Amino acid sequence: MHRNRKAKIIATLGPASAEHETIQRLFHAGADVFRLNFSHGTREAHRGYFEKIRAVERQVNRPVGILLDLQGPRIRLGEIEDGAIRVEEGQLVRFELEAGVGNQQRVPVPFAEFFAALKKQMFILADDGRVRLQVEACAADFAEARVVRGQGVLATRRCLSIESGNLQFTAFTEKDRVDLEYGLELGIDWVALPYVQKPQDLVELKRIVAKRARVIAKIDSRASLANLDAIISACDAVMIARGDLGFDTEPEDLPGIQKQVVRAARKVGNPVIVATQLLDSMAVSPVPSRAEASDVAAAIYDGADALMLTTETAAGKQPVAAVQAMSKIIERTESTSHFHEVLSVSHPTSWVTKADAVGAAAQNIADRLDAAAIVAYTSSGSSAFSMARERPKKPIVGITPSAAAARQLALVWGVHAVHCPEATDELKMTELACRIASEQHFARRGESIVISAGVPFGKAGSTNLLRIAEVE
Fold this sequence. Notes:
This protein is α/β, with parallel strands linked by helices. It folds into three domains: about 10-75 and about 170-340, TIM Barrel (Alpha-Beta Barrel), CATH 3.20.20; about 75-160, M1 Pyruvate Kinase, Domain 3; about 355-470, Pyruvate Kinase, Chain: A, domain 1 (3-Layer(aba) Sandwich). It has helices at about 20-30, 45-60, 110-115, 175-185, 205-210, 220-225, 230-235, 240-250, 255-270, 290-300, 310-315, 320-335, 340-345, 355-370, 380-390, 405-410, 425-440, and strands spanning about 10, 35, 65-70, 75, 85, 90-95, 105-110, 125, 130-140, 140-150, 150-155, 160, 190-195, 215-220, 235-240, 270-275, 305-310, 375, 395-400, 415-420, 450-455, 465-470. The two termini are about 20 Å apart. The relative contact order is 0.11.
């Protein structure tokens, strides 16, 4: 089976999607990658999710990616009685460093750096920015702040942010270190780090990962935007975390920021993920709003590799319906007559590597010959990444002897990943490419395919071969 779309879907797992049957239905509905959010749940629960995903992978006989999303140094509320309290405009809220279980009288924030950074008249944002509070009094272990705008909930483990605040802490915490080692031992494919403010924030994480997974930097603050190009160059992919960005920027700035980040990532060939509130109403509604459908379509026109569902699939009432809706919107958007015309306007013109040049040539040849598909034989996945950078009209079949690379490619725009035997010479590689293109229903007998590979075979990052073959 293969999808009828190029952009990929990431589904976050949680209480609403914890069962094996639900995960299987999410895959068939369109989920290409599953996200394990280590800000919530126990490590044992995430191990359960991991094992169920791999069981589904074996059943469907398709590579399925798994993304570990680290918590990072986020300011999160502690445990609150009955899960949440509601706050209204004008209400005074007391935050405490050591407050036990919170209630209407006191709200726990077990994060000393939060209180250290506060000053009178500063603003605190809560409930995804719906609630704005102004600090009236504060010390090292408490703060009193009044709701000056909006109404909403303060819920267990939900994030707080200091508006335009400059919190000084490391992006990679001790909890992240333990969670990362745990995930790498399981065999995760991608790892995302939040609150990356500069490329140096990724150094320790990449040292531990040691190429056992690919690294995603989350763009979620003004600081990360200020160092955007350097951060993109230091990682394998980026995620536009619009929820956290919304804490640090104005709503009217987000559409432009989204385009800026997508274009910067595409320029160097790094996948880019758009996340947060894409189909937010589907946490409770069976259908998306018109505005949400337009938001999804806008991200696709921007050229995003993947879109991520969070609450919709982790805690929503109809997680499968949310994936189905997103898949349909993407398919319909990509089928419009002007889709590739819009993508070409924002296409990066410079070639970053030799592999990028080969990718551009492969697209050109495939279009001129009306080839059935472009096949990238790749040890590490880099050839397929370069093909995806070009956003070709023809399908990309990424074939690799590495199961890990095949799973990583599940996130990349337009790539249909296939785990295959290793080829030892050009003839065997060509025969393998033709056979897989036929078996996967991308090419029929007599049709041409364009093949890229690297010589010598098995050497990662050596893309230097381009050839045309006819399927027999």
